[in-house]
């Protein structure tokens, strides 16, 4: 079974747009830049790109066959389906497993998104159309994060038998490497300028 990935689509698209912009600028700096200003610009570009990677592209909730993997900014968490005790939403999705509670960086439910969803539900409830009223009652004032939490809850119930692994939280090597590379660029820029 293919893993199902839940993330902020806007952050993901903006993150990849930044990556294209950064790649074009790296090419321009190497082709036309002059030291040390090109190195300083490259260091600034590297720091921003590392931040975009860890804050926009990395965060996701991945529903796998044996459990749910949460990729946050610097940490990875894995919870097998039979270890999921509760999935709730405040401004973020919270997955409880025994003494461990994992807060998911993405997708999040902002106050603005909650207000918009409540407005849509109220508007549809006032509608004369029975189909729109039924849809408003079914969906209510739900956000994308609420929908993802419901999906995870359902998966944890239906996939308990196929659970594998143990609950664990670890540092992300890719996020740490991206930050280390950006810091190395900054050190090199200061050393050579």
UniProtKB/TrEMBL annotation:
<keyword id="KW-0472">Membrane</keyword>
<dbReference type="Pfam" id="PF10756">
    <property type="entry name" value="bPH_6"/>
</dbReference>
<feature type="transmembrane region" description="Helical">
    <location>
        <begin position="38"/>
        <end position="57"/>
    </location>
</feature>
<feature type="transmembrane region" description="Helical">
    <location>
        <begin position="169"/>
        <end position="192"/>
    </location>
</feature>
<keyword id="KW-1133">Transmembrane helix</keyword>
<feature type="domain" description="Low molecular weight protein antigen 6 PH">
    <location>
        <begin position="58"/>
        <end position="123"/>
    </location>
</feature>
<protein>
    <recommendedName>
        <fullName>Low molecular weight protein antigen 6 PH domain-containing protein</fullName>
    </recommendedName>
</protein>
<dbReference type="InterPro" id="IPR019692">
    <property type="entry name" value="CFP-6_PH"/>
</dbReference>
<keyword id="KW-0812">Transmembrane</keyword>
């Amino acid at each position: 079974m293919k893993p199902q990935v839940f993330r902020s689509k806007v952050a993901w698209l903006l993150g990849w747009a930044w990556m294209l912009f950064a790649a074009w600028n790296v090419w321009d700096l190497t082709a036309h830049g002059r030291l040390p200003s090109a190195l300083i610009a490259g260091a600034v570009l590297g720091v921003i790109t590392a931040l975009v990677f860890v804050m926009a592209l990395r965060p996701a909730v991945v529903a796998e066959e044996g459990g749910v993997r949460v990729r946050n900014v610097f940490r990875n968490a894995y919870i097998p389906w039979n270890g999921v005790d509760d999935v709730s939403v405040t401004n973020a999705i919270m997955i409880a497993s025994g003494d461990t509670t994992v807060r998911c960086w993405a997708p999040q439910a902002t106050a603005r998104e909650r207000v918009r969803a409540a407005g849509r539900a109220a508007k549809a409830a006032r509608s004369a159309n029975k189909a729109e009223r039924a849809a408003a009652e079914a969906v209510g004032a739900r956000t994308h994060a609420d929908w993802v939490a419901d999906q995870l809850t359902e998966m944890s119930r239906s996939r308990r038998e196929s659970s594998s692994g143990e609950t664990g939280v670890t540092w992300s090597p890719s996020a740490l490497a991206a930050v280390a590379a950006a810091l190395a660029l900054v050190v090199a820029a200061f050393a050579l300028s």
